């Protein structure tokens, strides 16, 4: 309680001094424009993450904080010793605008999967950004590694494909292999849905997308397996995309088959392939 009283006193003193020095009182938090990474972007364990953001304040910037933490909620069954990447650092800012570019090393043993990257900023008067008004920034990024599961999308003849051809109103058929070369599979989620661009950007970001809503969704347990076939997992399933599903897509938006695989070491891999309709 004593500590709180002291710090409140200090803040009050600073506030009074600021008022005496300058009639303009800063009550507006900084703004953050996060250029990189973008929503859904992937980074390999052992490599660098590029962070690029523009900070602006009406009077004077002070600091920003960058944190990255895992978003593995769900299927790890509580018996897996994962080693998620965890990053939390504050940086000094000055002036009214500052463009920041940082290279952040991702440890080679980082567990693969979705992570949240969060950016907050504070100005010299103590005004902080927040999530309520969207002035703090958060994006989901994916870390990949060599030990996570892989998905090979194929046609009925076993040839790898770059996209699937679908016919509106007819059952879709998917083929391929889901395999884990290091360890074993655990849990598989198969989705047909949108991957929508998070934001428009000047340069091409092939992974800059976020899942919107699902047309089809199935969970499969594959505990202890090293390889399973997509066509076996989807046996007896009827996946049909209607014209009204397609009508919900934005201009230039596509449907994807998305396969999310958790392995026995807690790595989560997400693989997607476009489903093309004429
Ligand atoms: Ca301000
Ligand atoms: Ca594995």
In short:
This protein has helices at 2-21, 230-233, 243-247, and strands at residues 31-36, 42-44, 48-56, 61-70, 87-92, 97-105, 113-123, 137-144, 150-154, 163-166, 175-179, 185-197, 209-221, 227-229, 255-263, 268-277. The chain is mainly beta. It folds into 2 domains: 2-144, Immunoglobulin-like (Sandwich); 150-277, Immunoglobulin-like.
Q: Provide the CATH top-level class of the largest domain.
A: Mainly Beta
Main structural class: mainly beta
* Average residue pLDDT: 87
CATH architecture of the largest domain: Sandwich
The CATH topology annotation of the largest domain reads as Immunoglobulin-like
Write the element-wise H/E pattern from the N-terminal end onward: HEEEEEEEEEEEEEEHHEE
Helix proportion of residues, in percent? Answer: 10-25%
Shape: globular
Overall strand count: 16
Between the first and last Cα atoms, what is the distance in angstroms?
Answer: 68 Å
How many discrete domains? 2
Strand order of the largest sheet: 2-8-7-4-5
Q: Which strand-content bin applies to the residues?
A: 35-45%
Give me the Rg, rounded.
23 Å
Ligands, ions, cofactors: calcium ion
Pfam family, one: DUF4625
Keywords: Signal
InterPro entries: DUF4625 (IPR027829), Ig-like_fold (IPR013783)
